[in-house]
Amino acid sequence: MSNTPWEGVFDTASSLAESPATRGVVVRFLETLAARGYRFTPPAPVTEADGTVAFVNATITPYKSTLAANRPIGRICHYQPCFRAHGEHPWLFAFGMTGLLADIESGNDLQRVAEDNHLATLAALPDHRADRLHILVDSRDTDLMGPVSDAAAEHGGRLHVLDTPQVSTRWEYGDGYALRGRGITYYYRRPGVGCAVECQPDCRCARWQPLSNLILVEGAERRYAEVGFGVEITAAISFGPNAYALPELAGRVTAAEKAGLTPDRAVDAVNLYRALALLGECGARPAGKGPGSVVRKFCLRLLELLAPLTADQADSLLERFGASRNFRDALKAEGERRARAMVRNLRAAASVLERRPDTPDADLRATYGLSGAQLRSLRAESRGTRTGQATEARQNTEIRQIALEARLRPPRLKKGDAITVVSPSWQGASVFPERAARGLADLAARSGLRVTQAPPVPGCEPGSRQARAAEFNAALRDPDNQGILWMIGGLTAAELLDLIDYDAFAAHPKVLCGYSDATVLHHALYARTKVTTFYGPAVLSEFAETGGTPYYTLNSFLDVTMRGWSGSYPRYEEVLDEFVDWAGDDRARLPEPALPRTVLRPGTAQGLLLAGCVPSVLQLLGTPWLPDYAGHVLALELANDDGYGPAHAARDLWQLRHAGLLDGVAGLVMGRPRLWTADQRAELDRILLEVCHGLSFPVVTEFEFGHTDPVLTLPVGVPVELSGDDLRLLEPAVR
């Protein structure tokens, strides 16, 4: 069996077929069909290309469009991990199905499929007992009775023809699919359990275990046969009354009960964990709206189930379940996101009550998701039992505490620490080697750090995707390396997203600094680990400046990464915008007066800082490496590519808006565009106001970071306050 094509479906960390019992059901079913001429097809993903849930809940789901288009399907079989968004205990949200699809062009085809399925079902049963196989047929389906009856007479099993069965015998396949199904259900009869009197297979008692459905699917022009065979419920027959008796599930349920959860909570926690593990492995990500909201809903429900446990107990239990560190960190981050959102909702609801004390509780609950206890507390505050000042102070304290818990900080750099300079994108150091050497030497001399360029990767073509990823990962994993700097940006960092060792960075955070195309990896690392990184200067473009690194650039970098500074970011009176060709950069650039920061839309905001370059941010859309921007103060800048102007900015900013990335944002700080005219800057202001129309956060432009010089260093994931044109770092970004 090790050489069979379906073995690969089990080679995943969160495979649903986790035990020999469940795998045995799948393999025996598929081997029987393969021997009878069926072609194995790989499973369909349970997520869409954009990371949202695809709701694959039956073996037919991936093929509905083919069948609705009346195209032939042949004779295929497959194992399909499935997911349902709704269900009641003890249903599984994540489960496996194996089955077949076949064209039905004549009565002989239906006869053959009925026998194929009958034999595969008997093979898959743990005890292969034909005398315990019972088949329920609706009396209206006379064309199905003959083939199924013949198969039972030949191979064993009992047929039940019912006039008004109490289980479904008719199926529809959703809007947009001109398909209808009618069919039969196969049951396993458990001995010694169930009703006191004899009953039929459509009884809901423990005597009857449903196994599968054989459905005749009818389109506008063609007919097909579909079989969906439940893997867990069949494998569990040898162990107990439902799927939770399976060893891989029963062990987790027992562990949850021993940890302190009630039996019902324990079962539901295992259920939700399996669903989230499956979805997470397939790249699903939480979202505020649409199918992605199912992932978020499941995360929050799992956190509620684990609420009776301490944080350490919950983490230990999830580890017993088999959850990876990334899974546990992501679940924790989702809880922290919810806590931050609740703080904002409490503040908004309190503001509503101050203005309209007669607002109904139902409206506040529906709009802000508040509990009864929270509503009672808010109403008490609005009646004066607590002053508005005390309430605001409490809420600010909560925000600060949540922010402290929501991130990890790298150790601060010290003189003598080793820093590795990497090139995840453009290999600019090979084009301008003298400038690169000057940048390494200047930073080392003025900071006291030991700065070296990453060595070539043996066995890899220089500059290849594999070489760049290996170079970056080596710097992440090196225990003697305390920091990583970008040599220069580029266009190709997104090629490395699936090759980065996120676990290594989470386990041993270190200062990581770069900008422009570095956005891709900053945001991916933040999404996966919540570790603070630094959007700031690179070696070739800043530290290699002719005449030495600009004072404000170097000072901001050292303040944030070495000195543990916090406070208001300084304003620069001069800017180095002049273009000098690096091939002949034998003189320092001439400074020009800097334009002041502009408050485009006034206000005050607090949140975690998240900085990046807009075109690079857009490369993460539809990937599992995009962080949740809600609640953050965004610091965004534009590309410095030749020809990039207001029209390109409008295109990119509107894409951000339409993708929902600005929904729920606390504030927006826009970087200073390099070499733009006054008219271009005025056009950008107009675009920003249009893009942000209907959103309530403050907006500031002409901020000193990104593609400008001097450049500020902005830490990702650290709490800040934006007030007017002042951006204040509320606490150190390093420890």
Automatic annotation (TrEMBL):
Record bears the keyword Metal-binding: no
UniProt keyword annotations, A-Z: Hydrolase
LD-carboxypeptidase C-terminal domain residues: 606-722
Database matches in InterPro entries: aa-tRNA-synth_II/BPL/LPL (IPR045864), Carboxypeptidase_A_C_sf (IPR027461), Class_I_gatase-like (IPR029062), LdcA_N (IPR027478), Peptidase_S66_N (IPR040449), Peptidase_S66C (IPR040921), S66_fam (IPR003507)
Keyword Ribosomal protein: no
Superkingdom per UniProt: Bacteria
LD-carboxypeptidase N-terminal domain mapped to chain residues: 419-536
Pfam family, one: Peptidase_S66
Family the entry assigns: Belongs to the peptidase S66 family.
Protein name, as recorded: LD-carboxypeptidase
Organism, as annotated: Streptomyces rameus
